Amino acid sequence: MSTPSMMLGPQHPSRREISEEVHARPSDSLEAPSRATYVAVLIPPADRKREIEHLADLCSRFAVDPPDTASSHFTARLGGLTIKWERHGEFSGYTVVVPGVGATPFDQPAAALLPAGWLAGIPGLTLVAAHAELIAASTSTADAVLLARYFDDNITAGGSVGEGVGAIFSDFKIHADGFSRVLLLDDGYTARQAGRMMQRIFEIETYRMMALLALPVARHYIAKLAEMEAELATVTDDIAARTGDDETLLQLVTRLAAEVERGLAASQFRFRACSAYANIVNARISELRERRLPGVQPIGEFMTRRFTPAVATCATVLDRLYGLSERVARASALLSTRVDIARERQNHMLLGSMDQRAKMQLRLQETVEGLSVIAIVYYAASVVGLIAKSLKSGGLHVDPELIVGASIPVLAALVILATRAARRRASSD
């Protein structure tokens, strides 16, 4: 029987990697009762090596093989706990899971079983930190008393999920210990289902926070956009009314264009990421297959009322930046055309003036040439007169004055011909 490698032709070098991507980062299998701690940190590329080293240090304490330096995810059993690490584009996520729960809600989080100081030493900036507890629905009823006990009387969102096999609740607030809280009720989950549900709620919280990283940027640019739009309106009015110098207005528009482009360069990635992360949040919420429970706002409705407007604000600011960029470009093009026309008019006037000066110089040159001809003829005639007088003194019967008078027309013709020949040679050069 032929092996696949013998039956197939050349394979794409990334085929196996691409195929395995859908199997990467599998969810944990959980049995009620269990508790988990999840932390997501923003980590720059320069700290990726330290991240692996930090994980390797933890593994060495439990005599477990560390992750490979090229790994993007890692799961290991460390004594009584399970740790899972996942590397994403901008952040890394750490999930710690242990069986059982404490006597009171969230009094013994899973992270407490990690070596002292290890969690705090994770490289990067903490963006998400959450404790979760999975308990059997048969031991607790999802009523106001239970939710108040788990979430310190905060307003809670949640509902029945997975076609009624469980429920998820969270107040999406950071509590005094720096962690948010998630409660899962197991009313028929399989172990894999319970793991997927916990992973989804952690992902909803993570991608919600990642999306809203754009919100402070949007609020910063809302005020700046109002100023730039007002400035552009003033410049546009000046262009229409012709109340300002076009060169000055063009400089203002150019500066405004540079500010807008700088704003786009600084914020475009964050706003695009906001949209992408928001889509993931909505996808994870739909995967919960949530049903409303009496007296509790569903997670999907909670996000629609509070998260979606924030995402819309970021999208609106990006649209305004692009719109302002286009309007500034149109104003700049209009001013550039007007300035070019004005410059062409000035150049035409300058060329006319230069042509007039050239004609005047030519006339002056012709006058000077005329005077030069007279002067040359005068001196040449004087030389002829001296020669004639010398000949007369030598005994020849000549009339010097007659010879001078007769030579003048000939000398004048010769000088004029020589001058014209010199002018033609200068023009040909």
In short:
It contains 9 helices and 8 strands. By secondary structure, it is of the alpha+beta class.
Description:
It is a single chain. It contains nine helices and eight strands. The model has no long low-confidence stretch (mean pLDDT about 85). It is of the alpha+beta class. The protein is elongated, with a radius of gyration of 45 Å. β2 and β3 (about 80-85) form a beta hairpin. The relative contact order is 0.08. Strands 2-3-4-1-5-8-7-6 form an eight-stranded mixed sheet, with helices on both faces. The protein has three domains: about 30-200, no CATH class; about 215-350; about 370-420, no CATH class.
Keywords for this entry:
8 strands; alpha+beta; 58% helix; 8-stranded mixed beta sheet; elongated
What is the topological layout?
Blueprint: H1 4-7, H2 15-20, E1 34-42, H3 48-61, E2 73-78, E3 81-87, E4 91-99, E5 125-136, H4 144-151, E6 157-161, E7 166-170, E8 180-186, H5 191-211, H6 214-241, H7 246-288, H8 299-393, H9 400-428
Parallel strand pairs: 5-8
Antiparallel strand pairs: 1-4, 1-5, 2-3, 3-4, 6-7, 7-8
Helix pairs in contact: 5-7, 6-7, 6-8, 7-8, 8-9
